[in-house]
Design goal:
InterPro entries: 3-oxo-5_a-steroid_4-DH_C (IPR001104), SRD5A/TECR (IPR039357), TECR-like_N (IPR049127). It comes from Laccaria amethystina LaAM-08-1. Keywords: Endoplasmic reticulum, Lipid biosynthesis, Lipid metabolism, Membrane, Oxidoreductase, Transmembrane, Transmembrane helix. By secondary structure, this protein is of the alpha+beta class. It folds into 2 domains: about 80 residues, Ubiquitin-like (UB roll) (Roll), CATH 3.10.20; about 210 residues, no CATH class. It is about 50% helix and about 10% strand. It has a 4-stranded mixed beta sheet, with helices on one face. It has a two-stranded antiparallel sheet with strand order 5-6. Helix 6 packs antiparallel against helix 9. The chain is elongated and about 80 Å long.
Length: about 300
């Protein structure tokens, strides 16, 4: 066993006032072992709240990182420090809460229009299609969260759940529902009657394109799941459907699905939410694309873009 000193970040953890702390670790110990030792000393300072890094380095060390790789074989070439990240919440819980918002909000506007608009609304076929698309999309997302997704990071700061949820609850929940279920899109509205939005073939083609995008998105998620064994952060180069052109086809297909709803409705709320969502997904895709190229170097296919084939 080797003695290792753990310092606190500039602001001492509120749940652990005994730093610097000396612990005994095996030569082959990992960062996860260090976190477990800290929690053993301070039970309220859970491992999920701990950010462990090399002294004077802000970059967090992954749990599976071996101490010998960052401190030298004798574990004496440096010191570690720990920072309290504050209360945490699991990513799976965050996703479930995010997607639950639209699932609760849309039925209220759709089935109780007199409450929100002060009158009944005779729903058009367009409204019925959009309602079905939104509900099926977020039901799919909830099921994927439970049964498909494997998260590289187990938790996030608790307060972030309010920021993350606001995007879905407000923009794809309240604003979208408020706009698309009002009388402007009803069965008797001039905006609908006699236009392509009331054309059965147009609605069926739209439904087909939307279903294609959603199924393709699911296929991408299943491919990514199969690349990562359970309870690991293993990364591998994804191949197959969609990945021949972009690094993040799941984002591309989701953009297509919401684009279909935008074209179908012409709803300002739909365009605003889709614009925000696509912009955020593009940022994520660019970051993931760069990480793939950094991690795999020349092995990573050179012709791929980040999110949009041949463009970005």
């Amino acid at each position: 066993m080797v003695s290792l000193t753990i310092l606190s970040a500039p602001k001492p953890p509120s749940l652990a006032r005994g730093f610097p702390l000396t612990i005994e670790v095996a030569p082959e110990a990992t960062v996860a072992d260090v976190k477990a030792s800290i929690t053993a000393k301070f039970p309220k300072f859970s491992t999920s709240r701990q950010k462990v890094s090399v002294k004077d380095d802000k970059k967090a060390l992954e749990d599976e990182t071996k101490l010998a790789d960052v401190l030298g074989e004798q574990l004496r070439d440096g010191e570690l420090q720990v920072k309290d990240l504050g209360p945490q919440i699991g990513w799976r819980t965050v996703f479930l809460v995010e997607y639950a918002g639209p699932l609760l909000i849309h039925p209220l506007f759709y089935h109780l229009p007199q409450v929100f608009y002060g009158k009944e609304v005779q729903h058009s076929a367009l409204q019925k299609y959009v309602y079905a698309f939104v509900m099926l999309h977020f039901i799919k997302r909830e099921l994927e969260t439970i049964f498909v997704h494997r998260f590289s990071h187990g938790t996030m700061p608790l307060l972030n759940i309010f920021k993350n949820s606001a995007h879905y609850h407000i923009f794809s929940g309240f604003f979208l529902a408020l706009d698309v279920y009002r009388s402007k899109f009803s069965a008797t509205s001039p905006y609908i009657v006699g236009t392509y939005r009331d054309n059965e073939k147009f609605l069926w083609v739209s439904a087909g394109m939307w279903a294609f995008a959603e199924i393709s998105n699911l296929h991408t998620h299943l491919t990514l799941r199969n690349l990562r064994p359970a309870n690991t952060r293993k990364r591998a180069i994804p191949y197959g459907y969609g990945f021949s052109l972009v690094s993040c086809p799941n984002y591309f297909f989701e953009a297509v699905a919401w684009g279909v709803i935008c074209v179908m409705t012409g709803s300002v709320a739909a365009f605003v939410f889709s614009g925000l969502a696509v912009g955020q997904m593009a940022l994520w895709a660019i970051k993931k694309h760069k990480n793939y190229k950094k991690d795999f170097g020349k092995e990573y296919p050179r012709g791929r873009k980040a999110m949009f084939p041949f463009v970005l």
